[in-house]
Design a protein that fits this description.
522 residues, Cu-oxidase_C, mainly beta, 32 strands, binds copper (II) ion, Immunoglobulin-like, binds CU-O-CU linkage, 8-stranded mixed β-sheet
Length: 522
């Protein structure tokens, strides 16, 4: 257990990560270079400097702020030490002793990019690209930035993503477009990005990450992965429980839960509403007035908050997630103490835009995929997708542009955030089923009604909540690129331990053959 250090809340100012500028810009796009380095940073007034790994030696990494369709080239480089400072479990697939300890690969989460630039978990590289993984293809990634939304970039290395990310490798990547700019939403200093994570600390300020779930269990390897691990402080933009001084006016908050595994339900203690305008995939059709917003890890919410009637007040952004430990029920504080600099002319429009939703009849196939929990050879819980391991044959091969419905049958005991790379998902419904019956017979017996997506899920998503005991159905069009990608649970302690599978988007077959196949199926 970490030596619990009692840290005072709301004593550090919320940092705003710097925006990164391109090294050059030409007709083809903008070119950036980012180097991962080790460094130290104070994460709380009363905490010694913490050793971290960060993109360009920053935690969080620098923010990319680009326009839609402006191609971004990034050369991701690794200048990290050759020893990891967090406990590696070498019994996990992809983290074996024979591999270099410190490997990295960067994934732009929610981005639509070709496979060579998607940060495949086995496309890792070490310091100065001295060694590279079997699927490594290139040093410079190319991001076409096809939609306006808040993305983030983070490490995705096979078997050690949870450790690399915990060490600090994560940052925002914002894509904007003209339409969004025409809506007159709060902007500039009135738009605040919040990268929320949980972290634990040792007394000297170093990061605490457990080496084993159970010291006394001799069957376990050491170190051994710990599933799940929820840390005991909340860190926003690299400070523990920070505060921010705001004016009495509207703000746009872009909230990202970037915890390893923790789910967070955000709520303001003033009781005022959060007007959610966007999901992971950008703006919804209209704002939704929310009392609280649940974000599983990696989910994002785009939110407008109005502090205009709160001058002089301090408002705490809480975490009211059921079962959150008492310390972690606070996230950060807004002090509405800065006098208004000018009239607030920004707006919260009634209509935000239009989304072309998919309909069930467009789907050419429904796939049933289980999320289940078994035990591994050491007796540890092991969560699997479709009962398969990472190295099993690729079973999801889908032709480019094909629309499918996936039913995620969750007979495990966790609510898993399921993420597909490059593919937009639209939630259709969630329906409870008899888990014991399913486990005994393999047949679904529903025990309640199918519920439509929540009001704030009525847009596309790149990660969806698949609750335990429910069948969660989504529809998706597989594209826009062909190649090999991954889908996985985004709880990093699950993802690293087999809850990730490759899938493949294949080139379109001959069109006529396709049409005939469809016709005859009807
Ligand atoms: Cu945010 Cu495959 O990940
Ligand atoms: Cu999971």
């Amino acid at each position: 257990m970490p030596v619990k250090i009692k840290l005072q809340k709301f004593v550090d100012k919320l940092p705003i990560p710097e925006t990164i500028s391109p090294i050059k810009r030409d007709k083809k796009g903008s070119y950036y270079e980012v180097t991962m380095r080790e460094f130290s940073q104070r994460l709380h007034r009363d905490l010694g400097p913490t050793r971290l790994w960060g993109y360009n030696a920053m935690y969080p990494g620098p923010t990319f702020d680009v326009m839609k369709c402006e191609t971004t080239f990034v050369k991701w480089m690794n200048d990290l030490p050759t020893k990891h400072f967090l406990p590696i479990d070498t019994t996990i697939h992809g983290a074996e002793k024979t591999l270099p300890e410190v490997r990295t690969v960067v994934h732009l989460h929610g981005g639509k990019q070709q496979a060579h630039s998607d940060g495949y978990p086995e496309a890792w590289f070490t310091r100065n690209f001295e060694q590279t993984g079997p699927l490594f293809e290139r040093e410079v990634y190319e991001f076409p930035n096809l939609e306006a939304t808040a993305l983030w970039y983070h490490d995705h290395t096979m078997g050690i993503t949870r450790l690399n990310m915990y060490a600090g490798l994560a940052g925002f990547f914002i894509i904007r477009d003209k339409h969004e700019q025409s809506l007159n939403l709060p902007a500039g200093e009135y738009e605040i990005l919040l990268l929320v994570q949980d972290r634990s600390f040792n007394l000297d300020g170093s990061l605490y990450y457990p080496s084993t779930p159970d010291k006394n269990n001799r069957r376990l390897p050491y170190p051994s992965i710990v599933t799940p691990f929820d840390a005991d402080t909340i860190v926003v933009n690299g400070k523990v429980w920070p505060y921010v001084e705001v004016e009495p006016r509207k703000y746009r908050l872009r909230i990202l839960n970037a915890s390893n595994s923790r789910a967070i339900t955000f709520k303001l203690d003033s009781g005022q509403p959060l007007y959610q305008i966007g999901t992971d995939r950008g703006l919804m059709e209209k704002p939704v007035k929310m009392n609280e917003i649940l974000l599983l890890t990696t989910e994002r919410a785009d939110v407008i908050v109005d502090f205009s009637r709160s001058f002089g007040q301090s408002i705490v952004l809480k975490n009211v997630f059921k079962g959150a430990s008492p310390e972690t029920t606070d996230v950060m504080q807004f002090k509405v103490t800065t006098p208004l600099k000018g009239k607030d002319t920004s707006s919260l429009p009634d209509r935000l835009g239009e989304i072309e939703f998919l309909s069930r009849k467009m789907a050419s196939r429904t796939r049933d995929l289980t999320l289940d929990r078994v035990t591994d050879e050491y007796g540890r819980s092991l969560n699997l997708l479709d009962g398969k391991m990472w190295i099993d044959r690729i079973s999801e091969k889908i032709e480019l542009g094909t629309i499918e419905i996936w039913r995620l049958i969750n007979s495990s005991t966790d609510d898993h955030p399921i993420h597909l790379h490059i593919v937009d998902m639209q939630i259709l419904e969630r329906q409870p089923f008899d888990v014991a019956h399913f486990q005994a017979t393999g047949k679904l017996k529903f025990t309640g009604h199918a519920a439509p997506p929540d009001p704030n899920e009525r847009g596309f998503k790149d990660t969806i909540r698949a609750p335990a005991g429910y069948v969660t159905s989504f529809i998706a069009s597989f594209g826009p690129f062909t190649g090999r990608f991954v889908w996985h649970c985004h709880m990093l302690e699950h993802e690293d331990h087999e809850m990730m599978r490759p899938f493949e988007i294949l080139k379109k077959k001959n069109g006529l053959k396709n049409i005939l196949e469809r016709v005859f199926k009807l």
